[in-house]
Amino acid sequence: MDAGSPCTRPLRIVIFPWLAFGHLLPCLELAERLASRGHRVSFISTPGTVARLPPLRPAAAPRVELVALPLPRIEGLPDGAESTNNIPHDKLGLLFEALDGLATPFAEFLAAACADGDRRPDCLIIDCYHHWAAAAAQEHKVRTCTLATLSCNFGCPSTSLAQIRSCAGGRVSFSSPSPRCRWR
To answer: Could you confirm whether 2 is annotated as catalytic?
Structure first.
C-alpha cells in the first residue's frame, strides 16, 4: 500500500504517553483523531491519570479504550502521585523509576492483545521514555513509533519569559488554555 492510498481496514493502535499532561493531552488528541477515522485505539496510562483526562469526544469514544495500568509504589514518591502534576520537580526521578515498573504490566497487556486476533495491535506509539516498551513490541512483532513531544523552549532553557517578551517588543500575551487542555 503506498503512502497516498487509504487503509483497507481499520488499524488497531496502542498509544502510551509519558505521565505528563503536556504529553498525555496531545496523545489523547491523536487517539481521538485516529478513532474518528475509524481506527481502534488503546490509550494506556495510570488509573489516577486516566481519571483526570478530559472526556472523550462522543464520535471517538466508542473506538478508544482507556487502559489503566497501576503505577508501582516507589519509596519517596508521594502517595497518589501518577503524573508530573502530582510531584515536586526534585522527585521526577522517582516518577521515571515508577514508570519503569510498568514494563511487566505493559508486556502482559501487549501479550494478551497480541494473543487475541481481534485486538492484535498494528502499531504501538510510545513516548521517548518508554525504552522497555519497544522491546516488548519487537518480541510480538508489533511496529513501534516513538513520539518525541518537546516544548518550544526545550533547546533554549536559559531563555526567560522577559527575554521572549523583549524580543517580541513586549507584545507577547499568554491566554488561558483552551477548555480541552484543562484537567480534573
So the answer is: no
127 is a catalytic site residue? yes
Q: Read off the pTM.
A: 0.77
Single out the catalytic residue among 39, 90, 127, 131.
127
Q: Which three cell numbers stand for residue 16?
A: 502510551
Q: Residues 3-15: pLDDT tens digits?
A: 444 657 899 999 9
pLDDT-wise least confident of 79-83, 110-114, 164-168: 164-168
Q: Which long-range contacts (CB under 8 A, 24 or more apart) does 68-75 make?
A: 68/44, 69/44, 69/45, 69/102, 69/105, 69/106, 69/109, 70/46, 70/105, 71/19, 71/46, 71/47, 71/98, 71/99, 71/101, 71/102, 72/98, 72/101, 72/102, 73/98, 74/98, 74/101
CATH of domain 12-150+158-181: 3.40.50.2000
Catalytic residue chosen out of the listed positions 2, 23, 39, 100: 23
- Element containing residue 44 per DSSP (H, E): strand 40-45
pLDDT tens digit sequence for 22-71 = 889 999 999 999 999 999 999 999 999 999 999 999 999 999 999 999 99
